[in-house]
Write a structure and sequence with these properties.
Number of strands: 15
CATH architecture: 4-Layer Sandwich
Distance between the termini: 42 Å
CATH superfamily: Ribonuclease Z/Hydroxyacylglutathione hydrolase-like
Strand content: 15-25%
Structural class: alpha/beta
Number of domains: 1
Shape: globular
Helix content: 25-40%
Radius of gyration: 19 Å
Number of helices: 8
CATH topology: Metallo-beta-lactamase, Chain A
Strand order of the largest sheet: 6-5-4-3-2-1-14-15
Largest sheet: 8 strands, mixed
CATH class: Alpha Beta
């Protein structure tokens, strides 16, 4: 049993942490978007100016926990929204441990059927978490109340029977004049479909290269309408798929896009004040 002085000290520390955690999490007017280095997979952490945290995908293993610890305070055990773009293991396996370690308020998924051990494990944890579960659909906008919103561009229908990659959630993170377009593993025919719906909504400062730089994504027409300043390849150095493909690398080079590779650079951080986009912490 703790002595009275230690008990009082513990209570004081608890009160200080409770009061100051929101303040520490919101130290500026910046939006921070971090493409986490989780090897061959995707995981992106979005932190809004008011301290709200959105995790998009979780990589293929528990590496995401180590990377999150670099961006989040050790006592911070809350993630406001987790978005699983599609149920492939290199996007959702790490989310199983995330759900065990963090309090998650809202979980967003495309609703595609994918009966795998990893998917079953994820939904077991979701049942325990009792998070608010939402199916992503085009037209949804999640407003975080501090100028940041996330708009869903795809799916625009029931994708229960879709092939997993084709069902990927495509979303846009918006803050003032800056935008990030995140496409999961969406293939070229879905990219072209989005162009047919509204090419103007695709413009973004940062594009996450679809499917880790695979030649099945990043159609030249799509890249042209996106017109990014930067693109990020989220991939492992030793991947057996040949990502990124030379064809895709050349496409971005042809458009004069600055490409950044998590294999070579580690986690990639962008900050925006709503007008100016910068790289680095």
């Amino acid at each position: 049993m703790l002595s009275k002085p230690y008990t009082l000290l513990f209570l004081l520390l608890f009160v200080v942490i409770t009061i100051w955690t929101p303040v520490i999490n919101a130290t500026s007017n910046d939006l921070t978007v971090t493409f986490l280095d989780v090897g061959q997979g995707d995981s992106i952490l979005v932190e809004t100016p008011s301290g709200r945290q959105i995790l998009i995908d979780g990589g293929r293993d528990n590496t995401v926990l180590k990377e999150l610890s670099k961006s989040m305070s050790f006592w911070d055990r809350r993630i406001d929204v987790v978005i699983a773009t599609h149920p492939d293991a290199d996007h959702i396996a790490g989310l199983v441990e995330v759900l065990k370690r963090f309090n998650v308020e809202t979980f967003v998924s495309p609703g595609v059927l994918h009966d795998t051990p990893v998917m079953k494990a994820l939904f077991r944890e979701l049942e325990k978490e009792n998070a608010n579960e939402i199916l992503a659909r085009r037209g949804q906008v999640y407003d975080f109340g501090d100028g940041v919103n996330i708009s869903i561009l795809f799916p625009d229908r029931d994708v229960e029977e879709f092939e997993s990659n084709a069902a990927s959630i495509i979303l846009k993170v918006n803050y003032g004049e800056n935008a990030f377009l995140l496409t999961g593993d969406s293939p070229k025919h879905i990219e072209k479909y989005l162009i047919s719906l509204n090419p103007d909504e695709l413009k973004a400062d940062v594009l996450k290269a679809g499917h880790h730089g695979s030649k099945t994504s990043s159609d030249a027409l799509f890249v042209g309408f996106t017109d990014p300043q930067y693109t990020v390849f989220s991939r492992g150095c030793d991947n057996s798929y040949g990502h990124p493909s030379e064809e895709v690398v050349q496409t971005f080079k042809d458009f004069g896009v600055d490409t950044i590779d998590t294999c070579l650079k580690g986690s990639v951080v962008f900050k925006s004040d709503g007008q100016t986009l910068t790289r680095g912490r």
